[in-house]
Each structure stands twice: as C-alpha cells, then as structure tokens.
C-alpha cells in the first residue's frame, strides 16, 4: 500500500470508529435518560450503580465493535489471514500495547498506526464521558 493509500484508508476507518464511538455514547445518554425514569423507585446507591453499569456496557460495546472492525480490516485487506491473529493484533494495536510479536511490513505500518489512534481517541472520549457522568453523580444531578 502506498503512503497515500495508507493515509486515505486509515482516515476512513478512523472516521468510522469515531462515528461508532459517538453514536454509542449518544445512545447511552438517551438510554440513561430513559432508564432514569424506571430507576426512580430505587435507592440513590442502586440508581447510581445502574446508570454506571449501563454506561460501562455501552462503552465496552463501542470498543469491542471497533476492535472487531479493525480485525475485519486486517482480514479483508489480506494482511492477516487468521481471524485469531487479526483479532489479537487489532486488540493489541487498538489498546496501544504493541507487543511486537506480529509486525507488519513497511507498506502497512502507517495504516496500522491509525488503529492505535482510533483506540486513543475512543478511550479518551470514553474517559471524558465517564468523568462527566461521575461528576453528575457526585454533585447529585443524576436524573431522578
């Protein structure tokens, strides 16, 4: 893959990951608002735990979808032929662990770096979301 192709494809899949993250966090927010009505009879502790649990489920789902997307990219582009290797490489790259036991050739390194950038952005956004949620919890501004 040429440098321009790596940047174009990497940007495309990075953008898809960003959309996935934003859509699932927005859906999470709407779900929390909807569930808050059902949680109103619960004690404050249970309501808080329920809302945090719902948020974590959406966040884990968002990251899982993105890791599988990148694994599919590696298989689709015939970079890695085994799904096990593709999923492993995707997870290690997305989380920026980068063990180095699977290394791509020079024609794919920039493209693979986009998977790491996608993970960094997604984890950053998820963290900001949880901080905002926990701020509301500590300030007692959760939906009642």
UniProtKB/TrEMBL annotation:
GO biological process, one term: monoatomic ion transmembrane transport
Keywords associated with the record: Ion channel, Ion transport, Membrane, Transmembrane, Transmembrane helix, Transport
Residue ranges occupied by any Potassium channel domain in the UniProt entry: 67-135
Transmembrane helix listed as a keyword: yes
InterPro entries linked to this entry: K_chnl_dom
Keyword Plastid in record: no
Gene3D superfamilies given in the database record: 1.10.287.70
Residues spanning the membrane: 12-36, 48-77, 110-134
Name of the featured protein: Potassium channel family protein
